[in-house]
Amino acid sequence: MSPPSTILVTGGAGFIGSHACVELLDHGYELIVVDDYSSSTPQAFARVERIAGRFAGAVYELDVRDRPALSAVFDRHPVDAVLHFAAYKAAGPSTRRPVEYYDTNVGGTTALLRTMHEHGVHQLVFSSTAALYGDAGHGPLDEATPARPVNPYAASKWICEHILADVCRRCPEYTVLCLRCFNPAGAHPSGLLGEDPRGTPGNLLPYVAQVAVGRRERLPVFGADYPTRDGTGIRDYLHIMDTVEAHRIALDHLADEPGLHVYNLGAGRGSSVLDVVAAFSAACGRPVPYEVVPRRPGDVPELVADASAVARAWGWRPTRDLTDICRDAWHFQRLNPHGYTDSARRPNTKR
Ligand code: WQD
């Protein structure tokens, strides 16, 4: 089976999705992109096109749960494989809106699988999350670490992985690669694309960047009483360009890895919230003010990757570190002080 050439990217206007579009275009793939713009904007594609120097792919505004609309896309285009990013991804809000998270993330994945099967498409790269490990204690986590999700977002991704594994056991025609992302962060070095969420950022890096550029007064540090070296949460921040490079490489391996395979995507380095504040202060040349507040529900003390399996299998290792992440995130925020998502039209769907 030859490597895929036309890729359907779900959630292609989002943070990881839009950077993945640049990576795939830079490596000669043809793209079909779908997104409901509930947490993104079609303006991302204009920026993708400026960076890649080409796009001209087909873009459809749709919710992946809308099977008739999704089926029409497969009817129109010769999809070879799917890169599935479309999902709600905020740990905290998922504890307040669990049904929406399960419906969107699990329902969206099953709707996609059914539509793929109806069109004879059986190659999928599923962007999963390390959050499914839950509170797994200190030290690097490998793929054999038991899944103990502690919030509906993480649980929804774990349920998707379970469904995908069962489908692959029963249907030998499928090839599925699940990539458990630790914490993608940073921005494209051009400064044209970056993490630009609607409204108040849920994730740490965009919030810090918005404080640094003066859009927000100070960073709320969610707890300084965790059992970590400085009391704040420790995560494995992976540069977004390393993240999407791994997703692109996964597409190249769909042809030679039938069945389901799971890989951690991380740098293998833990950074605390205060480490990130210090690194970002160095990147922007001024202190980033912060205030310690109570813990956020659904958070865990530490999540750091053992990503040796993907290095052994594909020879992939991240080449960028926290300094690169903060430099690129600051470059993006400085060039886009008010971002480009919030100023864009908001669809009539609640996030
Ligand atoms: C990181 C640390 C917070 C914001 C989630 C998903 C994961 C991935 C990334 C998709 C924690 C602290 C944060 C703030 C803070 N999603 N924090 N103040 O929750 O580890 O991971 O997003 O790819 O799958 O689970 O990321 O950036 O929200 O939090 O103190 O304003 O920063 O408590 O310790 P998280 P995060």
Automatic annotation (TrEMBL):
Residues 7-266 form the NAD-dependent epimerase/dehydratase domain. The keyword Isomerase applies. Pfam families: Epimerase. Pathway: Carbohydrate metabolism; galactose metabolism. Its EC number is 5.1.3.2. It catalyses: UDP-alpha-D-glucose = UDP-alpha-D-galactose. The keyword Nucleotidyltransferase does not apply. Its cofactor is NAD(+). GO terms for molecular function: UDP-glucose 4-epimerase activity. It is an enzyme of class 5 (isomerase). Keywords: Carbohydrate metabolism, Galactose metabolism, Isomerase, NAD. PANTHER family: UDP-GLUCOSE 4-EPIMERASE (PTHR43725:SF47). Homodimer. Belongs to the NAD(P)-dependent epimerase/dehydratase family. This is UDP-glucose 4-epimerase. It comes from Streptomyces hokutonensis.
